[in-house]
From TrEMBL:
Protein name according to UniProt: NUDIX hydrolase
Gene Ontology MF term list: hydrolase activity
Keywords, sorted A to Z: Hydrolase
Pfam families noted in UniProt: NUDIX, Nudix_N
Length: 207
């Protein structure tokens, strides 16, 4: 069951309809109607959040083509029964290495890239832990649909290097987690990574 408020669900559905219509419609009058629908969606989000209408419109304008969920990938990197977390500069809290999946990279390549960029480490992705619909697991609203993919990874080598996204990294036990960047990962999601780690066979979790 979604944790999102109904107004956000409706706004995102309107945005998806408008984006699909603008992608496939050639008639200028139809396109005007879809542009109006997109404006209505932006106004709904503006009235219910602290985002400025210009910021919302810019976010929506970046999307083109048939609307699909965005993909967020997270590397659950283990060493000595502890998990690797990085400290995000944007909020000073901790998360699994990861972020938006970049076009041109496979899931495995994205995970390797994110771990190297954010934590300075080399890893070997091994198995999928879960593929989650963000709106069912996070209370904080988000203007787009999103799937979050958590993958168990083996630590190979490396250590933290200065970068533009994170300020520190470390390995933590499940009972000693630091303050988490909850928009990126929750305690429950990290605990599920530990649970999967302890099993010889893990059946991937998905919504």
């Amino acid at each position: 069951m979604s944790k999102e408020p109904k107004w956000l669900e409706y706004a995102k559905r309107l945005q998806a309809i408008a984006q699909a219509g603008l992608t496939y419609s050639e008639n200028k009058y139809d396109r005007e109607r879809f542009e109006e629908i997109r404006e209505i969606s932006s106004s709904i989000i503006k009235d219910q959040t602290e985002l400025k209408k210009e910021e919302i419109s810019e976010l929506f304008m970046e999307d083109a083509g048939y609307p699909t969920p965005k993909i967020d990938v997270r590397a659950a990197v283990f060493k000595d029964d502890k998990i690797l977390l990085v400290k995000e500069k944007v909020d000073g809290r901790w998360s699994l290495p990861g972020g938006w999946a970049d076009v041109g990279y496979s899931l495995k390549e994205n995970l390797i890239k994110e771990a190297q960029e954010e934590a300075g480490v080399k890893i070997k992705p091994q198995r999928i832990i879960s593929i989650l619909d963000r709106r069912k697991h996070h209370k904080k609203s988000f203007p787009f649909g999103m799937y979050k993919i958590f993958v168990e990874c083996e630590f190979l080598s490396g250590e933290f290097e200065k970068n533009i996204e994170t300020s520190d990294s470390g390995f933590f036990s499940v009972t000693d987690l630091p303050p988490l960047s909850l928009g990126r990962n929750t305690k429950e999601q990290i605990r599920s990574c530990f649970e999967a780690r302890r099993k010889d066979y893990h059946k991937a979790i998905f919504d």
